[in-house]
Amino acid sequence: MELCGYAFGRVCDIEPDRTERGVIDIHVPQSEYAKRDEKAVHDYGWGPFCSFGVPDDGTHCPGVYVIAVADEVVYVGETKDLYDQFTNGYGRISPANCFEGGQGTNCRLNTGIFHAVRAGDRVSIHLHATDDFEGTEAENRALRRIIKDDLITAIDPEWNKNTSDETNETADHPTAVSEPKADRQENAPDPTADCLEETPESTADRPGETPEPTADTFEFRETTRPDDAPTGEFSELYDYLTEHERDSVERTFAELEVVLDAPLPTEARRWQRWWTNDPLSHPHSKAWLRAGYKVADVSLPDGQVRFERLRDSSRASDTAETPQVGRVSPGRRE
Length: 334
Prior knowledge:
GIY-YIG endonuclease
């Protein structure tokens, strides 16, 4: 690849870690931060985040790198060590980096990579190495910044346009913001949870009991499932909504896959009618209807669905209803 006269070598495609079922393993580090009650999560600190790295061979070098999505350059950066920048920086979001004072760029790029890979796009890294430059480290860094600025001016990459979070970003220290060792918890929480609360030990450790995660906090509490509770591949969604305390629950498809610990059916991403509130024609809708919710709105292009709590009468009848659909792509039929 050649950009503005600079030669770039392809390093690798970014392949985030996945669960045993093939779903991208979502990393939720916020609850591991001991000072989470003292600081607010910044604009990019909620993720979703994934974990990834780059090959160790030949990547411990300085240079200017580009991130490309579907062969289109979306970000240009410079670094003292490419391996450290991606494996320990962008690819591993530390708990402290999610909060005010943390490196928002790490969080922002990680989330962008997550969504691009989840959408099926190839995300690749390319490097213009400057390790053969004869000069001091300060001179090398000045050269890298000149090249980076040239490329950003010429290409105007999409992910470089938001630079308000770059205050704490340093190319030489991709993971500069970290917790003191004394503040780290002994037991890390479930990485599939999306919470800011610790797991109460009293319920999780009781013999013979299976704790269930609650809605936004995913804290664990003992639950009793009724006899008519749905079983099968969507039973986790029923359990999730049953324990939810809010009347309106909006989730991305990726977040629902974390709840299910499995990919959504292809039809759920392509057809609005898959989300119909009709237990007769769409038995899977029992997962949310019997939990006391209906699908109120679906956006297939954005990959989002909004559940709203039913009134008691509606909950009992499981009335068929087709949810609204938001911004359906042209050419798609219901």
